[in-house]
Amino acid sequence: MTHEGVAALERWLATREPAPPAALAARLRELARAAEGEDCAPGVASSGASDAGASSGDGTPAAAAHAATLVQATGRVLERLLRAHETARGSALELVAADALATYAMEALGDAPDALEHRCEWAMRYFAGIADSA
Asked: What is the pTM of this model?
């Protein structure tokens, strides 16, 4: 995702209602920024997601790009937590962040209903693959 795409995603996250607690909102922004410059997760390109056109049109390209980045960020958090066996109280913020990222990804997909089913199935397969490999 480009710098502009990350900035657009951060603006989109800031409009979510109800707003998350400050610590969670800050962590979500950090995770969105970390997505900048990363290689796409397997299947992102084939999911039809891209940040092309993120600033114009009916919002569908931006929604797809936001969803793909959020799914990828969720996957990175889950992968790190599962590999380190960090599922205790000390990992609460990361676990809640992963949940919020996945929830927001599904919300973003709702803004791009043309491929909703395909992209949701891709996201679930991606998450399941992380769990299987951990």
From this structure: 0.81
